[in-house]
Amino acid sequence: MWVITVMSVACLLVSPSLAGIKDLSSHFTDPELEPRGFEPEGAVDIEAIPLEFHKENTVTNDLVLDGFEDEDYIDFDKILALGSDDYTEGDEIDEIATPAPDIDIFAEPSDPKIRRARLLRLFHSRSRLQRLNIVNAHFGFNLYRSLRNDVNQSDNILLAPAGISVAMGMMALGAGPGTHDQIYKALGFAEFVNASHHYDNTTVHKLFRKLTHRLFRRNFGYTLRSVNDVYVKKDVTVKDTFRAETKDYYFAEPQSVDFRDPAFLDKANRRILKQTKGLIKEPLKSVDPNMVLMLLNYLYFKGTWEQKFPKELTHYRNFRVNEKTNVRVPMMTNKGNYLAAADHELECDILQLPYTGKISMLIALPRKITGMRTLEQEISPTVVNKWLKNMTNRTREVVLPRFKLEQNYDLIANLKEMGLTDLFQESGDFSGMTSERISMNWLKHQGTITVNEEGTEAAALTQVGFMPLTSQIRFTVDHPFLFLIYEHRTDCLVFIGRVVNPSQN
């Protein structure tokens, strides 16, 4: 089983002079790696994404946090019992513009016409919710590439694109026209809205609501849930529209708190600890007393492999970090029927490791130890669809390192690079949240993932330059690789990561 936790934090301040939010840090338990019998619970838990914003909000009654962390924040069973999940907003397949037949969708992607043609081609025969998740994946891969350029070539990487997209969707609710348009353009929501005359800006938020219903149910054989908390400074008013829409679309209701009260940190941290099943301990080390609003989003996943790796077969062996360096790490081994494919254009092999319940991990392993750069540069929803479409099922021996990653990033520079500039300067318009001039000065994204023997099903989807991986009988992951976690009912890219050195967190 494996566990992933991700947490991002974005802070909006009343004025640039108040931009000194102190650092958030997360403390994760770090179980020792043993050759056999380690991590007996062996589950995959993914937790994720807190965001903090400063703004003005309509105050609700004082929040009594004592015992609050013991409540079930969103009763999905009740939602489903009431039939609230049956509206068709996310399941419809609308007519979309057909790409011009003379456009080569596999040509240079910098051409905006080609990018749009690729997107529309992917949209065909997909539901609205699947289309939104294709856009979210585009954003996630682009953000990954931006981050990849900022870290060392030897660093492991972990991102939760789904949580970041949810966070940006919530931010868009409070943004004025100019800033709203910038968010939609940078995240790809604008391209989604323009794909069909049936869509408007509100469609995006309706689909995030639908995604919560579809993706975060509890009866699919795995646990994947999202929780949003909104804390508002005492005696500050939030606009009624923002309060209502945040609750309606993102199940987040503003709660009035005193950020100057030291007890707030303890109570908020206890709630985070509970919602992340103990994976995130005291992430909020301090809070600027001048904060107006804090928005937190958690994403938690716990899954079990369809075919568990026998613990008695785990053994130490070499993992090639680069052409000069090897590390000895516990390698899990299993033999069974697995889907796999070969991408001869990107010179990599792909393995699908399913969890119970239509969610899986895709391992993309470059054939050359120096091939990671090309794979990272070209990864896209189009590429992933081709992998899934061309997979074949046969008996294989799989050898995979057990690993745990803990990462912490400040994503402001990356989001600016992707066009989100207004959010982080005085020109940003958050008039949908507050009448005060505010800007965001901090956006943190932190997470952890543990992959072990316990902790899985798949789907397949599209072609070109691919051959079925029919001849390979062993899939040995003994050098740097990419991994993706996909939920296949909704085509949602939940996590993306890179393992360069499994011996390092």
UniProtKB/TrEMBL annotation:
Keyword presence, Signal: yes
Any one GO cellular component localisation term in the record: extracellular space
Signal peptide: 1-19
One Gene Ontology term of the molecular function aspect: serine-type endopeptidase inhibitor activity
Domain Serpin: 141-502
GO BP: blood coagulation
InterPro entries reported for this sequence: HCII_serpin_dom, Serpin_CS, Serpin_dom, Serpin_fam, Serpin_sf, Serpin_sf_1, Serpin_sf_2
SMART domains associated with the record: SERPIN (SM00093)
Keywords: Signal
Pfam families per the UniProt record, alphabetical: Serpin (PF00079)
Family in the record: Belongs to the serpin family.
The protein's name in its UniProt record: Serpin domain-containing protein
Organism encoding this protein: Perca fluviatilis (European perch)
